[in-house]
Amino acid sequence: MSDNVRPLRRPPIRQSTLVRSGREHTFEVFVRDIGVWWPARPHSLGQERVVSVTVERELGGRVYETWADGSQVGWGEVIVWAPPERFGMTWTILPAVTEVELTFTALAPALTRVALEHRGWDRLTEEQLAGATSVSGGYEAGWKRILEIFVQHVEGV
Question: What is the residue-wise DSSP string for 86-125?
């Protein structure tokens, strides 16, 4: 390795899973039904107050949770909108903005690989990173659980 090349200090979180469903359906369920399958407890800001999660289906659209009192609390903005292949958003829940991107790859007519990358961790201070990774096993465990729940929902629809 050259002296001028530095390894990434905080590599992206990468997760992937297989879904027994077609790519179009898998993508559609992710964005359209996110408020149905997303585990708001513990993976939201409002916890028990959350009544829905919404993705505005366009580049620049908002991603947000709605609380029982009607409040809308932002999670980020759609930065990649390429149905049914890719979806990306800023993740503004952390003290610094990071990005989450998913790719949906058709492996067979009824088999889709969903790959998630959560990047931008180098924007957080050491203290912020420690706080983000200490909760319930951190984002690595959180994304694993979220994808498992997503697969169960897609395959059950």
Answer: EEEEEE-SSSS-EEEEEEEEEEETTEEEEEEEEE-GGGS-
Among all chains, which residue has been given the structure tokens 């201070």? 125
| Distance between CA atoms of residues 32 and 27, nearest Å | 8
Statement: residue 6 has pLDDT above 60: no
Helices (H), 72-156: 126-134, 138-156
Question: Whole-model pTM?
Answer: 0.89
Task: State which fold the 13-156 domain adopts.
Answer: Alpha-D-Glucose-1,6-Bisphosphate; Chain A, domain 4 (3.30.530)
Gap between the Cα atoms of 115 and 52, Å rounded: 24
